[in-house]
Specification:
13 helices, alpha+beta, 6-stranded antiparallel beta barrel, 21 strands, 5-stranded mixed sheet
């Protein structure tokens, strides 16, 4: 706002907040649709939450969401389906996809970028025996009412049914470190990029953490490396993660406290602190109690989301360990390639294949960038060595070609086809053409060269035809096309000079024979 005022402009805070909420709603709906597995989405609007209140249903007590490994008894206060609220003694039966509102819940409802808990509700009879199962796929909050959506797997559920909440705490243990490390990442980014970095959104689930922040350009490799190292250091330092609820005004006065721009916070508000002052943020999510519980941290990707907004994706625990192991594997592979002589045959292609594998590998973004740079050096050195080898080979080839051409002229030949070892290099082919034209300007010449002799791979054909034979009907462009047709290749050029290639050729002899026969037939037709 201050920057806008200095520029003579105003920030539409209300408009921004509304637009941000609309986008968040779209994102939530997309995730809800995926969780519903094709079933209709269940959403409570203001009219429905108002009806709940009028019917004496109180907002869900979700204070138990910060508890771990508990099985909380609760009561079904209302059932919501595709056609609205169930009435009277109506039951949700096995196979029904519905939303349940409980008097209290230990489930965490999606909020603050953290995905909702999943798990099950165990349906109890009057004696406390389990007589049914409700699979909780998603939990959303509407006006303080938690809607637990999912499928009745066994038994039946009606209003007043007693259940035991069984959160999938194993999954939450995968989510919590990702959430706590978004706080650490936020602090690390401000440390590396400066105090103008602000959070613009986040997503924490059991697979990864995603953090959006304000920054005008892509982070450099060194900035990414510093950020990742700070986060890894904080994990290794085993810093405590504490949460405290306090009045909003008191919390806002804490030195260094962070809040998301545009986010509306409750009063009182929950403040989560990592270490003494590593990170202090308003947050209602579930967290680990110590950074050591994250076990490992790897920054996987940094990309653009919108103008001035960047996004970092990272992982913790087993996913991070896998990324580290994958990175070490490719570090060794690249090191082995670096140890090879630059003139090792096929090193450029081997390096290219390694690059492709590295691009698709799940590893640290900083290590991936480093390995890409090292691979590029290998490729450059290999290509330079290859060019030098070709240049040396061309000198040798030119001497051989000159001898063959002179012999052909002495024998009275008017056409000549040769296989030439110049690795299908177009610049080298031009040198051959110039040498032929200098020695025997009246001979029609075609050269055939494989990129790698005997590999069945790429082949190149190039030809030069004097005016006298063009008049006789032998045209270089037609000659090249005819020769390469044998292996599905293509060519082009002019009657006096042309070239072409085929990506694959398993029978060079057939190409040679076709080229030779085509030229001889044209010359014989002139004589007859």
């Amino acid at each position: 706002e201050l920057m806008a005022e200095e520029a003579g402009m105003k920030v539409d805070i209300k408009g921004f907040t509304q637009a941000m909420e609309t986008q968040k709603q779209r994102s939530r709906q997309a995730r809800s649709a995926a969780k519903a597995g094709g079933a209709p989405q269940l959403v409570l609007i203001a009219e429905q939450t108002s009806a709940l209140a009028k019917n004496g249903v109180l907002p869900t007590d979700d204070s138990f969401k910060y508890k771990w490994d508990v099985e909380l008894p609760a009561t079904v206060m209302s059932i919501f389906g595709q056609d609205g609220f169930y009435e009277g003694n109506s039951e949700a039966k096995a196979g029904d996809f519905v939303g349940l509102i409980l008097d209290k819940s230990s489930f965490y409802a999606e909020a603050g970028g953290q995905e909702a808990d999943i798990g099950e509700l165990r349906v109890l009879d009057s004696s406390g025996s389990v007589v049914g199962i409700f699979e909780v796929r998603d939990v959303q909050t509407y006006g303080g009412f938690l809607l637990h959506t999912g499928v009745v797997r066994e038994g039946a559920i009606s209003m007043g049914t007693h259940v035991n909440c069984r959160v999938d705490y194993d999954r939450r243990r995968q989510v919590a470190p990702n959430h706590s490390m978004t706080h650490v990442l936020n602090a690390a980014l401000r440390n590396v990029l400066g105090p103008n970095v602000d959070q613009r959104g986040s997503l924490c689930n059991d697979e990864k953490l995603r953090f959006d922040f304000s920054h005008k350009k892509a982070m450099t490799l060194e900035e990414l490396k510093q950020t990742e190292e700070i986060c890894q250091k904080i994990v290794s330092e085993s810093l405590p993660v504490n949460a405290q609820t306090m009045p909003l005004s008191e919390a806002q006065a804490i030195d260094g406290v962070r809040a998301v721009f545009g986010e509306v916070y409750p009063d009182p508000v929950r403040v989560v602190t990592v270490g003494e002052d590593t990170s202090i943020e308003f947050c209602g999510g579930t967290h680990i109690s110590n950074t050591a519980e994250a076990e490992a941290f790897v920054l996987i990707e940094e990309t653009a989301v919108a103008k001035g907004i960047r996004r970092i994706t990272a992982v913790t625990r087993d996913a991070a360990k896998s990324a580290i192991a994958e990175g070490e594997k490719y570090r060794k592979i690249v090191a082995e390639a670096e140890s090879m002589s630059v003139d090792t045959e096929g090193l450029d292609k081997q390096a290219g294949a390694i690059r492709k594998d590295v691009d698709g590998a799940f590893m640290s973004a900083t290590l991936k960038a480093e390995l890409r740079n090292r691979i590029e050096v290998i490729q450059k050195q290999a290509n330079e060595a290859k060019k030098m080898a070709i240049a040396q080979r061309v000198d040798k080839v030119l001497n051989q070609v000159q001898e063959e051409v002179k012999a052909a002229v002495d024998n009275g030949q008017r056409t000549l086809v040769l296989t030439i070892d110049i690795s299908a290099d177009s610049k080298a082919s031009q040198k051959v053409i110039n040498a032929v034209k200098k020695i025997a300007p009246e001979i029609a010449f075609m050269g055939l060269s494989e990129e790698e002799p005997g590999s069945g791979g790429k082949i190149m054909a190039f030809a030069v035809v004097p005016d006298s034979l063009i008049a006789a009907g032998l045209k270089a462009d037609e000659w090249v096309r005819n020769a390469l047709e044998v292996c599905g290749g293509r060519g082009g050029g002019k009657p006096e000079s042309a070239q072409g290639q085929a990506p694959e050729c398993g029978d060079v002899d057939a190409v040679f024979a076709s080229a030779r026969k085509f030229a001889e037939n044209k010359v014989e037709a002139e004589v007859s």
